[in-house]
Write a structure and sequence with these properties.
Elements (H helix, E strand, L loop, with lengths): L1 E2 L6 H11 L14 E2 L14 H5 L35 E6 L2 E6 L3 H14 L4 E5 L4 E4 L3 E2 L7 H6 L7 E2 L2 E12 L2 E15 L7 E6 L3 H14 L4 H9 L8 E4 L2 E4 L3 H15 L1 E7 L4 E6 L6 H5 L7 E9 L2 E8 L10 H11 L2
Antiparallel strand pairs: 1-8, 2-7, 3-4, 4-10, 5-6, 6-9, 9-10, 10-11, 12-13, 13-17, 14-15, 15-16, 16-17
C-alpha cells in the first residue's frame, strides 16, 4: 500500500474537508473486495510497464460478448432476452488441487450473456471477449477494499480515495467449457504489484504476484449469486467443495495428468491461464491449445520459456482411461527445445496437486 506523492496545501485541505461533508456516511463496509476501474465502461489506466499487453494484437479477441453459439459449432442457438435464474441444485463447485470451477446444468446460451454484466457489476471493465473460445477477460483493476479505514481517510471517506493507491492490480479471465448437460465455468486470477527497485526506494516497477485461489473461489461464489441462488446457499456450496485431484507427474519433457483426457483438457487449460500462458486458439477435435507467453508477465515465463509473439502448441494424448499426457510443441509441430519447459511443467504440476 502506497500513498501517492501529493502536496498538502491549506487550499487542498479545505477542499477535501468540504467535499467530505457529504461522504462521511459512505465509508467502506469492511468488504474484502471493492474493485474499481477509473470510469464505467473505460479501461483502468494500465500501470507503467504493462503497456505491451495492450499493444499486442494477439489479445484483441473478436466477439460481441452476447452470443455463445459459435462454441462447439452450434450456430442455431439463440440468446435469451431475459436472465434465467439458477438454483443451488443446478450448480456445484468442484475442486482439484488449488483449482475450483463452477458446474452449471444449464445451456451455455443461458450462462454466457450473464458473465460480462457480472464483471461490470463487480467494478471491472471488459478487455476482450471471444464466444469462439468461450473466454472473457477483464482489464486491470484495483481492489480498493485493502486501503486503510483509519485515521484521516476514515474521517474524510471517499474524499481522499484518489490520493491513495494500493500498489496492486488484478485481472481475471473467465473460461466456459461445454459439458454433456451444461457448462463448467473457470475463473483465473492474475496479479501485479508495485515494488521498489532498490533499497533507496527512489523508483518502482511492476512485477507479477502469485495467483490467488481464494479470490477465484470468491468470484465463483458471487457468480452463483448473480445466477440466482442465495448468499447462504452459495457459501454452503463453496464450503462443501471437495478436493478430488489425483495429481500429475513429470515424465521427461511431458506432464502426465492422472485423469481422463476430458478432465485434463479443462483443468490444464485453467492452469495455463494462471501461469501466464494465454490461450489464443484451440482445436477441440485434436485436443490442442495454441498458447503464447503473455507480454505483461515479468516473471517465470517471460524469463524462461518461449518468445513473445510466438505461438506454441499444447497437445493432449490419452495414455489410458485415467492418464493423459500433455506436451509442448512449436508452431510447426516439433517438440519445444527449451530448457524452460521443465519450469513450465513444474508450475502446471503444482497447480494440479
Amino acid at each position: 500500500m502506497q500513498l501517492k506523492k501529493i502536496s498538502y496545501t491549506l487550499g487542498l485541505a479545505a477542499t477535501l474537508i468540504l467535499s467530505a461533508c457529504g461522504s462521511l456516511g459512505s465509508v467502506s463496509s469492511g468488504s474484502k473486495i471493492d474493485y474499481r476501474s477509473q470510469v464505467k465502461g473505460s479501461p483502468l489506466e494500465v500501470p507503467p510497464g504493462l503497456s505491451d499487453y495492450d499493444k499486442s494484437k494477439q489479445y484483441n479477441l473478436e466477439g460481441d460478448g452476447v452470443r455463445f453459439s459459435s462454441i462447439n459449432q452450434d450456430p442455431t442457438a439463440q440468446t435469451p432476452t431475459t436472465q434465467l435464474l439458477v438454483t443451488a441444485k443446478d450448480m456445484t463447485i468442484e475442486k482439484a488441487g488449488e483449482t475450483r470451477w463452477l458446474v452449471i446444468k444449464r445451456p451455455a446460451e443461458q450462462v454466457w450473456p450473464v458473465l460480462q454484466e457480472f464483471w461490470e457489476d463487480n467494478g471491472f471493465t471488459i478487455r476482450s471477449n471471444s464466444p469462439k473460445l468461450g473466454v472473457i477477460e477483464t482489464d486491470w483493476a484495483e481492489n480498493r477494499a485493502s486501503l486503510p479505514q483509519t485515521g484521516l481517510r476514515k474521517v474524510l471517506g471517499k474524499a481522499l480515495d484518489t490520493l491513495y493507491d494500493t500498489g496492486t492490480r488484478d485481472m481475471f479471465k473467465t473460461r466456459v467449457e461445454r459439458t454433456s448437460d451444461g457448462v463448467e465455468v473457470y475463473i483465473s486470477h492474475r496479479g501485479m504489484e508495485e515494488v521498489y527497485t532498490s533499497s533507496s526506494k527512489e523508483s518502482t516497477m511492476w512485477q507479477p504476484r502469485a495467483a490467488d485461489p481464494q479470490l477465484e473461489a470468491e468470484f465463483l461464489r458471487r457468480l452463483m449469486v448473480k445466477l440466482g441462488t442465495s448468499e447462504k446457499e452459495a457459501q454452503t456450496v463453496l464450503a462443501n467443495s471437495v478436493n478430488n485431484s489425483k495429481g500429475a507427474t513429470i515424465s521427461g519433457d511431458t506432464l502426465v495428468v492422472a485423469d481422463t483426457i476430458e478432465n485434463a483438457w479443462r483443468r490444464v487449460g485453467l492452469s495455463l491461464d494462471r501461469a501466464g500462458l494465454s490461450v489464443v486458439d484451440r482445436d477441440y477435435s485434436s485436443r490442442t491449445y495454441i498458447v503464447t507467453p503473455s507480454p505483461d508477465d515479468r516473471g517465470l515465463f517471460r524469463k524462461s520459456f518461449g518468445k513473445l509473439n510466438e505461438t506454441y502448441q499444447v497437445k493432449f494424448k490419452s495414455l489410458n482411461s485415467n492418464q493423459t499426457q500433455v506436451a509442448f510443441f512449436d508452431k510447426n509441430g516439433a517438440p519445444v527445445d527449451d530448457k524452460g519447459v521443465q519450469k513450465v511443467l513444474k508450475t502446471l504440476q503444482n497447480s494440479l496437486k
